[in-house]
Amino acid sequence: MTLVAALIKIELFSELTSRELKKVASFMTQVNVKAGRDLTVQGKPGREFMIIAEGTATVRRDGKVLATLGPGDFFGELAVVAGVPRTATVTADTDMVIEALNRREFTSLLDGSPKLAKKILVGAVKRLHEIEESVVR
Ligand code: CMP
Fold first, then answer.
1. Domains (range + CATH), the chain
2. Which atom of ligand 1 is nearest to the CA of 79?
3. What is the pTM of this model?
4. Among 42, 126, 127, which residue has the most ligand 1 atoms within 8 Å of its CB, making it the best to mutate?
5. pLDDT band, very low/low/confident/very high, at 50 (cuts 50, 70, 90)
6. Which ligand 1 atom sits nearest the alpha carbon of residue 49?
7. Which of 50, 69, 87 to mutate to test the pocket of ligand 1 (most atoms within 8 A of CB)?
8. Nearest residue (CA) to ligand 1, atom 8
9. Which helix (H) or strand (E) covers residue 64, if one does?
10. What local confidence, expressed as pLDDT, does residue 101 receive?
11. With a 6 A CB cut-off, is 59 part of the ligand 1 pocket?
12. Is 72 helix (H, G, I), strand (E, B) or coil?
């Protein structure tokens, strides 16, 4: 399967035209990750936005599980978009295949599609809300 064919299936990209999808595909760097590796570390700076192509990862903040992410899910947007430290540690549960974008590539992805930018924004607000709830409880 080509990368573009794989990207069409990802909900985040569902509203992109095939031209936009080709552009996104050209930005992406595929990375193979071994089970157990930390993809982000809470409190550390972060430079990549990542989309899961294969495998699963667990999101933890202060050791508490916030979520498990799988194929089609994205993470790493918070530190990259706002220049803040990573809000959580994301650890590979299995061997994984990740598609990574650096800050410049992620910014041009957002600039190119307001609909996609809105999905990322809504997702980011929900995630921060969950973090806030987990602190209050
Ligand atoms: P970032 O802070 O860059 O790095 C850690 C990532 O974990 C964060 O971006 C989000 O993508 C992700 N994350 C943070 N909180 C949650 C949550 N409540 N649910 C799912 N993912 C989260």
1. 3-136 (2.60.120.10)
2. 3
3. 0.93
4. 127
5. very high
6. 3
7. 87
8. 76
9. strand 64-69
10. 95
11. yes
12. coil
Counting Cβ atoms within 10 Å, is residue 91 exposed (0-12), middle (13-18) or buried (19+)?
Answer: middle
135/30 Cα distance (integer angstroms): 34
Q: For position 137, what pLDDT does the model report? A: 56
- Residue that the structure tokens 């706002």 belong to: 82
Ligand 1 lined by 76 (C-beta under 6 Å): yes
Which residue, 45, 46, 53, 83, is CA-closest to 70?
Answer: 53
**Alpha-carbon dihedral angle through residues 106, 25, 30, 27, given to the nearest 10 degrees:** -40
Quick one: which atom of ligand 1 is closest to the CA of 89? 5
The CA distance from 27 to 19, in Å, is 13
